[in-house]
Amino acid sequence: MDRWTRTLRQIRPRDATEVGGKALGLARLAALDLPVPPTFVIVASLFEEVRSRLPDEPEIEMIAGRIPASVRASIESARDRLGEAPGGYAVRSSAAEEDGAKFSFAGVHESFLGIPREEVVGAAFRCWASAFSDRALAYRRRMGLSTDASAIRMAVVVQPMLRPSSAGVLFTATSDSAEGELLIHAVAGTAERLVKGETEPWALRLPRRPGAKWIVPEGSPLSAKGAEELASLALRAASEWGMSLDIEWAMEGDRLCLLQARPVTAPLPGPEETPAPADDVLWTRANLRELLPDLPSPFFLSLMERMDWVAANRRLGLPLDPGDQPVVRIIEGRPYFNLSRMGNAGARFGFPLSRFARALGHGADLTGIPEVRRLPLAGLLASPRSGLRLLRINLTSRGEVLRFFDRVHTRLRRLQEVKEVAAPDRVLLDLSREAEAHGADFLYVLQIAFLRVVSRMMAVELMVPSATDPERFINATVAAGDKSVSVRQGLDLVFLAHGARSEGRVVQYLVEGWDDFREWERELEGTHFLGAFRDYLARYGHRGVQESDPAMPLYAEDPGFLLKAIGRVAGNPRSPDPEATLRTQAETASSAWRDLWKRLSILERVVPVRVFLLRRAISSLRKAMALREEVRFEGMRVQAEHRRFLREVGQRFVRRGILEWAEDVCFLRAEEIEGALDGRGEGEDFRDTVHRRRKEMDRQREIPMPNLLRESEIPGLSDRSWTQPRDEGSFLGLPVGPGKVEGIVRVLEGPQDMDLVHPGDILVAPTLDPSWIPLFALASGLVVEMGGTLSHGSIIAREYGLPTVVNIPGITRALKTGDRILLDGSAGVIRRLGEQESPKEPKTIS
Amino acid sequence: MSPGTPGLSMFPRNPGKALIVDDEENIRGLYAEVLEAMGFQVETAPDGLKGLERIQAGPYNLVISDIRMPGLTGVEFYLKAAQARPGSEQRFIFTTGLIDSLNAHEYMIVTEKPCIVKPAKVENIQQAVLELYARRDSGSRS
Fold first, then answer.
1. Which of residues 503-532 of A touch B (CB under 8 A)?
2. Could you tell me if A600 and A634 lie in one domain?
3. Is the Cβ pair A532, B100 closer than 8 Å?
4. Cα dist. A176→A215, A238, A362, A727, A828 in Å?
5. Which end of chain A, N or C, is less surrounded by CB atoms within 10 Å?
């Protein structure tokens, strides 16, 4: 063995410090007899040796010219053993710490591509010298690595340049499918444009079931044979490594090469992995987490328990199977829906349980679910009455929603006339029952609006050509165009912030106001801002953070949250121009349409029926999504009026000495409030009850509650604690907002944490709802634990135009504030580049 | 004209054509008087639609527009004018009362321009015009 160079076959795991992380990864692939490009490695000792012999040479780059002839000859003969290199050589760094999981040194060390034969030695030394650059030393200091010259060890990898006909990435597991499938992203030529996000890849999918075949569309840069070969190599690597991988590949002629393999982890492979008995009831709180606090108020929970869910489902045309378990159950203070019973209702009509769960926002936490598959027609034949009802509701849903808006306005007119202070107890009691009835109506219409979105989405999926990834396509095309009311609410806030910059007094007050906004009306007197902000409150003041729980304050009651958000955006000159965001969305959409067009057969281009229908279906889906946001928006108006009465009840109870604070009324159950109002429970002192419930909630807050639970897991819940997910580098979720960005992670519990956000941060959050929008103006990207393509949060993020990945269970614990990540909102991939770095300006890759 | 407004002596002798769009006749009259004294040839329109017709017919060096008017609002007029004759957006001054509440989008657009707050004094009008010209000059240099 040559002292200064190694082939991949000569590398052993103990050589890590001598050959570096990149070379070790390649050696691992080569050891499995997987095809990798011809490679040799210049070991770290060589550079150290040379350096120690030339202690007086200050210019590190000059050293290459003064190395002994024998060393040069050793490198050159290794180079010549690689064989022909008509495209020149790739010379890349391979640092010892660079193991891909902890420290990537991405963009810190230099790589050189297309280097001519005679310049390989020089390029290798320049590569090594980059380990001592100011940038590299700063990076090492930030990461807590030694900057002592003797501690810096770097090897160099040399390969002939490939000239691939196609290249891309293969994912051995995708989270957006319950059964698991292989996904290949392929582009013509090198993968560079794909990695930079400049081009839309072709998506090839292979379901993991026996006998399944790749369907390769006309024009795909990768053939069916190539896809099969690649898949078998990838599966072998994944099974040898014992984990899911994402693998970079290239096809040169008919020769396949693997360029790099990285582990992809589902961060919380918890108890869900063991297949459960079929009668183990599944409980979900996925879509509830979006619009409620983690621990909703006891008042809200009691309303959920009182609701007649069986009747509600029957009314919807989705009658539930009989069952001895309730439809809604409160587990450790959190409301859960009975997914088994509700999902089976949909499965009767060809909407499988796993699909239903995904629409709610479940993903990787969903394995081993018992599956009932039936054709839609079979469901219609089995229960024609329900089937017809479902069909009718779908066809008439728009009219139903518009009638709901009328009802909302009738209710509002009446409620606005009621002066809460003057209303006798009896009236407040009637009003609280009305509030409950409105809640049930509101929920019914929300479900109709949701079904409308689901059916439009199924229509689009039917029409998208098989080579196009339907989710990517939908995300790219739906985002452009008219904005839903939830996004307008956010954009208007950004407009206010931009306008405020021209009124110096306003910015000064908002930025330097020490977050005490009690006197805002007096302080802002005499500015245009005051009028514009009052107009904003008149439009949107009935909404609030986690607004579905009547215990949460609304913007109109406490505009401090909004003023603070406006101040943060106005005080940050780098916050993105909303008009530019809208232009980017339009460009993304038209490029998705162009890509689709390229994939159509000649016949379909001549007779563009498919494109015509698809354009209509996309527009119809966009409208359905906007209508659903509008239902929330309008329904909340009535709920906001009722909150006024609830607060009055609280104040009365304080005067009567049965509560300590007015807000404590939300710690009471609905029937307790009613009892006190109609005189039945007169004199009952609730102060102890509230105290007890507060303590109980403090205990429950500490219990880690998953979004998906099995009946059999419930008894052991209170002993559970958050397990630290394995510390790996890549995560795969559901791509929602297209675009790529590199930035610093900021893990947030809720939008209230806005003080912690630095401009350009990538926000990592458990859920999203419209109250997050003010923070979007500060962020460069979003990662959300919960959420499906259809969840409110996804819809908002997509429309707003931020690169976004959702549905990665456990990600708020797997990533830490200060981590540096690369977020690819088009592929749904997050890659950790480094840990706990100090905040820095974001870099948008486009 | 009040000679006290700083910078006024430097103002060009023949600044060109100005358009005043406001639904109140006496406001149009007041603004016209001030602008004529500054050397402008002044035309007026009672609402945004009429104003838009004028702009489509020929360019203006200066447009002063009210916000709350029948038909088009001042901001709608502004957006359509910018579309019909690109470059017009550089020549706009808005005039509005503080009690008129602007919506968020209007607020952003209006506050980016010099603004004459009603009730306006002669000096306020002159200052807004001077500010617009100063911004335009610095804008064209950069």
1. 503, 526-532
2. no
3. no
4. 19, 19, 9, 22, 10
5. N
> Do A436 and A314 fall into the same domain?
yes
Domain boundary among A580, A604, A628: A604
Amino acid letter at A844?
T
**Does residue A30 form part of some domain?**
yes
Residues A115 and A238 in one domain: no
A716 Cβ under 8 Å from any chain B Cβ = no
pLDDT at A839 over 60: no
A165-200 pLDDT, tens digit per residue, is 888 888 776 544 334 567 788 888 877 666 555 666
- Find residues 97-116 of chain B whose CB sits inside 8 Å of chain A: 98-112, 115
Smallest CA-to-CA distance from A248 within A13, A95, A37, A82 is with A37
How many domains does chain A fold into?
5
Q: Tell me how far apart the alpha carbons of residues A779 and A180 are, in angstroms, rounded to a whole number.
A: 32
ipTM of the complex: 0.86
**A664 lies in the same domain as A798:** no
**Residues A676 and A558 both lie in one domain:** no
Of A129, A160, A191, at which residue does a domain stop? A160
Domain that holds residue A799: 730-845
Residue bearing tokens 């480094």? A834
> What is the rounded CA–CA span in Å between residue A25 and residue A7?
13
Asked whether the beta carbons of residue A492 and residue B104 sit closer than 8 angstroms, the reply is yes
- The larger pLDDT score, comparing residue A375 to residue A21, is at A21
CB pairs under 8 A between A and B: 55
Sign of torsion over alpha carbons B126, B130, B133, B139: negative
Q: At what angle do helices A560-570 and A485-500 cross, to 10 degrees?
A: 60
Nearest residue on chain B to A533, alpha-carbon basis: B104
| CATH number, domain containing residue A735 | 3.50.30.10
So what's the architecture of B15-134 in CATH?
3-Layer(aba) Sandwich (3.40)
Question: Residue A134: helix, strand or coil by DSSP?
Answer: helix
- For residue B13, give how far its alpha carbon lies from the nearest alpha carbon of chain A (Å): 30
My answer on whether A170 and A156 are in the same domain is no
Given an 8 Å threshold on Cβ–Cβ distance, is A499 in contact with B103? no
Query: What's the pLDDT tens digit per position in A545-579?
Result: 888 899 999 999 989 889 988 988 888 776 667 77
Q: What is the pLDDT of residues A575-627, one digit of tens each?
A: 667 777 778 788 888 888 988 888 888 888 888 888 899 999 999 999 999 99
The domain spanning residue A194 has which CATH number? Answer: 3.30.470.20
User: Is pLDDT at A68 greater than 60 in this prediction?
Assistant: yes
Domain ranges of chain B: 15-134
